[in-house]
Structures
1.
Amino acid sequence: EHLTSVTLLAADGGLDDVTEADASLVAGQQMARGIFLTKDIVNAPHNILNSESLAHTAKRIAAESGGTIKCTILNKKECESRGMGAYLGVARGSETEPQFIHLTYTPPKSSGKDLKKVGIVGKGLLFDTGGYN
C-alpha cells in the first residue's frame, strides 16, 4: 500500500517545521523511486533489458531530472571513431548495438559557492555479455 497523504502538525505551530517536513517527504519519495528503478534494472531479464532499453532508460532519467542530468549516448560508429576497441570487443557478443551511456549531473546553483567535482565511473553489464557483476 502506498502512502498518498500525510497530515503534519508542527510542534510549535511554525510553518518552517511543515516546510522542512514537506521537503524531507519529497526527498524520500525521490530516493524510493531511484531504489525501485535500480531494482527493476537489476532484476530485468535480457529480453526486456538490453543495451538499447538501458540507453532509453538513461535518456528518460535525464529528461525527468529537471535539467540537472545530461545524457549522452555514443553508438557503435562513435565508439569506433574514439578508438574504444576494448569496449567494442566485449559488445560484439551482444544481440543489440552497443550504447555507451554517459550521464553528467550538475547540481542546481543554490549556494553560490563552488562545489567539489566528483567523478563516478561504473559499468552496466547485461546478460548477453556473459553475466552481470
Note: The chain has two domains: 15-44, 49-113.
2.
Amino acid sequence: MKNVTYSFVSFEHWPFAESFGFNTDILATNLINLSIVLGVLIFFGKGVLNDLLDNRKQRILSTIQNSEELRKGAIEQLEKARTRLRKVEMEADEYRINGYSEIEREKVNLINATCDSLERLENYKKETLLFEQQRAINQVRQRVFQQALHGALGTLNSCLNSDLHFRIISANIHILAAMEEITD
C-alpha cells in the first residue's frame, strides 16, 4: 500500500508536475479549457436563461389572455351582428309585405334627380367649354398682336434712319399746320 500511496505523491511518475511551464499539448489543454468554460457558462448562465424563459413564458401567457379577450369580443360582435341581421331581415320582409310601390316611387324620384343633375352638369360643361374657348381665343389674339407689334417695331427700327425720321416728322408738322389753318 505504501507503494500505491508513494506513487501518487511521488513526482517521479508525473513528469509534467516537476516544474511549471507551458503545456504545448493542444488537445489536452483545449479539453480542459472547454470544460472550464462550459462549467462557468452553465453556472452563471443558468439564471439568465431562466429569466429569459420566464419572460418568454409571461409574454406567451399574456398573448393567450389577449387572444381569449379578443375571441370573446368577436363572439359578442358576432351575436350583435346576427341580431341586427335578423332585424334587417324582418324589416325586409315587412317591405316585401307592404309592396314594392314605395321602392318604385323612390326609384323614379332617384332617376329624375339623376337626370336633373346630369342636365345641370351638361350645361355647366358647355359653359365651361365656352369660357375656355373664349379665353384661348383671347390669349391667341394677344399673342398675335404682340408678335405683330414686335414685327412692326423690328421693321421700323431696321428701316428707319435719321434722314427718313426727319422727313416723317416734317411731313407730320405740315399736316398739323394745315389742319390748324382749316380749323381757324
Note: The first helix runs from residue 2 to 9.
3.
Amino acid sequence: MTMNSKRLLSSLISFSKFSSNSEADAFKIGDILRQTRVFTNADVVEYSKVSYDSNPLHFDTQCAQNAGFPDRIVHGMLVASLFPRIISSHFPGAVYVSQSLQFKQPVYIGEEIIGEVQAINVRELRKKHLVKFSTRCLKDGDILVLDGEATAILPTTTIELQRSKEWQ
C-alpha cells in the first residue's frame, strides 16, 4: 500500500461515521475531523515561494542546529494550513473566519502529523452554521505541536467525505 493510499484510508476511517446524509450524521458539538499529513522538503520549498518566508531555519541544517533544533523545521503556518483544508474538504463552500494558534513543538520534514478539528460550538446563522472549532496537531501519536481555535461559516452541518485531491 502506498503512502497516499494509507493517508486516504486513514482519512476515510476517521470520517466513516459521517458516510450517509441522515440527520443522525449531522456535524455537532464534540465531533472530530482528522487528517494525516507528512510534510516534505518540496512542501517547504513551495510554501517558501508563495509566502516569501526564506528563514534559514527551514533550509539550512547548520542554522537550525545553531538555534537548538536537531534539523530543519517545517514552517508553522504550513502545518496550520491543515485546519482550513480539513474543514473545507468536508464542508465545500465553508468560509474560514478566524484562527488562533499556539506553536508548542517544532515539526521536522518527514514527520507524520495528525491535524484535528473538534466542534466546540455550533449555532445557526441565517440558514448557515457558525462553528467554533478546537484545533490541534499531533506528532508521534500524542505529542502536541500546535494548538488553537478556529471559526468557520458552514453552508450545512452534513459532512461530506473528502472530494478534493489528496495532497501529493
Note: Confidence is low (pLDDT under 50) at residues 1-24, 163-168.
